[in-house]
Structure formats: C-alpha cells, structure tokens
Specification:
Elements: E1 8-11, H1 17-28, E2 32-37, H2 40-54, E3 59-63, H3 69-82, E4 88-91, H4 113-140, E5 143-148, H5 169-190, E6 196-202, H6 210-215, H7 223-235, E7 246-248, E8 251-253, H8 262-275
Parallel strand pairs: 1-2, 1-4, 2-3, 4-5, 5-6, 6-7
Antiparallel strand pairs: 7-8
Helix pairs in contact: 1-2, 1-7, 3-4, 4-5, 5-8
C-alpha cells in the first residue's frame, strides 16, 4: 500500500490486546490512526502510551459502546465529520464466550450480546463509513476493510438467530464470527468495481489476550504474531486488489460452508438491514 504516513486507519477495540498492538505498530510507521474504545479514561491512557512510544501525534480517540447501535451510529457520525476520507477499516473489537458461557446476555437493543457486538456493530459501522472508504479509493486507487474473525465458526440457525431456545456462549461467539465472514464476502462482491477490498481473518490461535486467559488459561501464541497477520492484510503492497478471502493466520483458507451459501448470506443481510435500521423499504 502507499506510504503509511499518507493513510488514515480506524481500529475498533484498540485499547487492549490485539487492537492495541496493531495500533502501536501502525502508529510507529506513521499512519493517522482513529482508535476506538469503550472506556474513555482507558482510551486516553492508551492514546498517550502509544503517542509516547511512537512519537506519532496523529492519533485520535473515539469512544463508543458497541453493544448499543445508537452509540455505533454516533461513532460513525463523529468519524465522518472529522475525516474527509478513510483508507483502512479494521473491525477488531469483540466479545468472547464468557465469563459465564451458560448465561445469555442481551444488548441495549435487545439482541443476543455477542451477535450484537461481534457482528451487528461492525455491520452498521462498515455501512456507515463506506462513503469515506469509497472516496479514498476514488482518490488513491484503493481502500481496505479487514474483519477480525475466528477459526471458531458455527452455522446460523435462522429460526433462532438470537439463541433464545438453546443458548451456549461458545455457540454464540462462533456464529457471530461466521456472520462476520459472511459480511466480508458480501462486501467483496458488492464493492468489486470500486477499489475497496474486504477480507477476513483468524489472526492466531489462543493469543495472549484477556479473552483467551479468561477462557482457556494458558495462551499458545503472542499478540505480536496475530498483529502481524492483521497488519499484512491492512497495508501490504502485494495484497492490493485482493478481496473476498478468509485467511487462517497468513494463508487463504476455507471458511465454514455457510459463508459460501448465497441464500444464507442474503437472508442474513436482509435481517441485518432491518435490525440496524438501514432498511429504507420499511
């Protein structure tokens, strides 16, 4: 991709774990960064920490609780107001299966919480900032969407998307991550002639993050390893024009079969437009 000093990049979930590592690395290479978090005090601390570590003063913090669609909409309004264009969107923020995988939780809007944060929030955010991404692609030749998914994927039961009948935290997490891959494939097809690309990835297995320590105890990989794969998809020159792929770490891989089912993707898209209030036909 172009010189990183020319790029504006937004990263959700940038105040901890993988997101913070990616933000620090890209800040060190000179990019203008829009960092998202949900705790303003922590956001300010992380912003100052990255600025001190990298010397980059082109860092901006945006606060939003992604379990609220109203806050997601407000976040996108703030980004749109402050940025004339956007080169890279990294949808990284997410919730794991716990802390109690047997307890079903709901979002501010009444949706199953993991589905709301891991899928509906990036769906709405991406849709709202697409004009900025397309403007950047028109001006420079490309823009990129990177969705941080997982190798844990489970098919969506459209008769019980919100898992009201048979809830399990790992199932909730896994279907939300498959939904994110399905969104990726949809976006790639929709944007194929625009210069905006969309790819998803499983960055690494059991990285040393709060989420992994909470679930499994001992991590098997470092955050730095996962961050490298995210950064490659986001800015590597050799991936210009590459779109519509799911990566397992650094290699193209096969996602769960439902991701390739056009009818299932269309159904998910139709429901998502309604759930997020973007369906203008109703």
């Amino acid at each position: 991709m172009r010189n990183l000093e020319e790029l504006t990049i937004i990263i959700t979930g940038a105040t901890d774990g993988l997101g913070e590592r990616v933000a620090t690395d890209l800040a060190g290479r000179g990019a203008t960064l829009l960092l998202h978090g949900r705790n303003p005090d922590k956001g300010r601390r992380v912003l100052a920490k990255i600025r001190e570590a990298t010397g980059n003063d082109r860092l901006h913090y945006f606060n939003a609780d992604l379990s609220s669609l109203a806050e997601v909409a407000a976040l996108t309004a703030s980004v749109t107001k402050s940025c004339p264009r956007l080169d890279v969107l990294i949808n990284n923020a997410g919730l794991g299966a716990g802390p109690d995988p047997a307890r079903r939780e709901t979002s501010a809007d009444g949706f199953e919480l993991r589905f709301a944060v891991n899928y509906l929030a990036p769906f709405l955010l991406t849709r709202r900032v697409l004009p900025l991404l397309r403007r950047s692609a028109e001006q420079t030749g490309e823009a990129r969407i990177i969705n941080v998914a997982s190798a844990a994927q489970q098919a969506i039961d459209f008769n019980d998307v919100m898992l009201e009948k048979n809830y399990d935290g790992m199932r909730a997490y896994s279907q939300s991550k498959l939904a994110l891959v399905m969104l990726t494939f949809d976006l790639a097809a929709e944007l194929s002639e625009t210069g905006v690309t969309a790819n998803a990835l499983h960055p690494e297995s059991l990285m040393d993050t709060k989420m992994v320590r909470e679930w499994f105890g001992t991590p098997l990989a470092t955050v730095e390893e996962g961050a490298g794969h995210v950064e490659c998809l986001a800015v590597a020159d050799e991936l210009k024009g590459v779109s519509g792929l799911y990566y397992d770490r650094g290699r193209p891989a096969r996602a769960s079969e439902q991701a390739y089912d056009e009818k299932a993707r269309r159904r998910l898209r139709e429901l998502s437009l309604i759930w997020t209030g973007l369906d203008n036909s109703r």
